């Protein structure tokens, strides 16, 4: 053994997908899903005026900071609960159930954050109307995204995140 060999540090061998790639994939998914849903909700709250882009971006920022971490935790909890309750169903059916439940939960929370950001709480009736209108308008988009995600993307994403 030479002195050089003992002094040269060796890096551990990279196993699996780098964490940075996993973070980038998750962030791109969150921004795409959150961006499309908050765009619809912001439109329902304020319309396409001069303030739309600013309101949409601030709503998106709040959703990414507040909702997405909660959504990741909720997805894990809902997936576990559905697996316990629906033991006789196959994985695809359970994934569909998870997708539907998550669409309703996440959309109602996103509509709340978006209405709070765009309308505020000073007029309860306007806030409630803004929340409901945003939720209902974005629901078809959210259901479509969540069903596609849970049926096709989620299983692949889970394998990717474990790699």
TrEMBL record:
Transmembrane annotation, as ranges: 20-44, 56-83, 95-119, 131-153
Pfam family, one: DUF2798
Keyword line: Membrane, Transmembrane, Transmembrane helix
Ubl conjugation found in the keyword field: no
This protein's record includes keyword 4Fe-4S: no
Top-rank taxon, per record: Bacteria
Database matches in InterPro entries: DUF2798
Name of protein: DUF2798 domain-containing protein
